[in-house]
Write a structure and sequence with these properties.
Elements (H helix, E strand, L loop, with lengths): L6 E3 L22 E6 L5 H12 L2 E4 H8 L6 H9 L4 H6 L3 H14 L5 E4 L3 H4 L6 E7 L2 H12 L3 H23 L11 E4 L5 H12 L8 H22 L7 E7 L2 E9 L3 H9 L6 E9 L8
Parallel strand pairs: 1-6, 2-4, 2-5, 3-4, 5-6, 8-9
Antiparallel strand pairs: 7-8
Helix pairs in contact: 1-9, 2-3, 2-5, 5-10, 7-8
Length: 301
């Protein structure tokens, strides 16, 4: 059975009973769950409850940003990118690829064996193209969201509405700048839950049942796609972390341990680029289509 549209389930499973421990095949990778919620609600609490029921790890933005520092990107800058997103004029002046790739490489490392619930605003896009990821959007009416924010932050209705509008705008800018995607598009998710009508317990039960579906179990193809994404992003992040190489304009693809690179490097750095890539674990072959240019500040003999 193929699923071409997200599942929209606005009614809780009231009056029913279901086991809250999912049964998965033993051994090998497990499904991954990402949860996105707008500026309101209890997405973190749901993720933590879900992870406990499944025996999964629960990871949020803070863990992702902290772990990404290994690739040489300051935590303050990562926090700024993740929380606020750039304005249009900043997008013209700044290359966001190092941040996106560092976050992607880090999330892949955290999710290498599945068994992960990620709650945040980037996870569903960072793992794009991997079949055994269940991408969940928690939705609600503006009135319900205003009430939640008003209660949580002791704001007036007008201030709560303004807060939601500003956060939604910032997140829209961020997702569009980093991925060219609109977070409000339901077709980017597998499961859309109306939290204005569904309790947290009901949402947990629906997600547990959905993640047991055959469509979200790891296959040879989806596992290979994840491994290729993981290795490719790790290689790319390692290249960006190199002070000498980070100014290069490179495209990186991974296929079963084979890394193919193409693009521009500063003259004299071709061998260094290849050596850096070969130093990354699980790389077993490197091919290149590189062209070189004189480094900045070089005006010839």
């Amino acid at each position: 059975m193929s699923v071409s549209r997200p599942l929209v389930m606005p009614i809780p499973l009231a009056g029913t009973s279901c086991a809250l421990t999912a049964q998965f095949p033993k051994g090998g990778p497990m499904p991954i769950i990402t949860i996105y919620q707008g500026a309101s609600g209890d997405g973190r609490e749901l993720a933590e409850s879900l992870a406990q029921a499944l025996g999964y790890r629960c990871v949020g933005r803070e863990v992702l940003v902290e772990a990404s520092r290994r690739y040489g990107i300051p935590e303050a800058k990562l926090n700024e990118i993740v929380e606020k997103g750039p304005h249009w004029w900043e997008r013209l002046l700044q290359d966001l690829r190092p941040y996106r790739i560092a976050l992607q490489a880090t999330l892949c490392e955290l999710a290498h064996d599945g068994k992960l619930v990620y709650h945040g605003h980037l996870g569903h896009e960072l793992l794009s193209g991997v079949g055994h990821v269940l991408k969940v959007l928690l939705s609600a009416s503006i009135e319900f969201r205003v009430e939640q924010v008003r209660a949580r932050q002791s704001l007036t209705d007008a201030a709560a509405r303004h807060y939601i509008e500003e956060v939604d705008k910032a997140r829209s800018r961020r997702l569009m700048a980093m991925f060219g995607a609109d977070w409000r598009d339901p077709n980017r998710y597998d499961l859309v839950l109306n939290m204005g009508k569904m309790s947290r317990e009901g949402a947990k039960r629906v997600i547990i049942e959905a993640v047991k579906l055959d469509e979200y179990q790891p296959t040879a193809a989806s596992t290979q796609a994840f491994n290729d994404l993981s290795l490719g992003s790790r290689v790319h992040a390692t290249l960006f972390a190199s002070r000498a190489i980070r100014g290069s304009a490179l495209e990186v693809r991974a296929k079963g341990g084979h890394i193919h690179m193409k693009g521009r490097v500063d003259q004299g750095l071709e061998d260094e680029v290849v050596n850096v890539v070969k130093s990354v674990p699980r790389v077993n072959k490197v091919t290149t289509e590189l062209y070189s240019v004189p480094p900045d500040g070089y005006f010839g003999p």
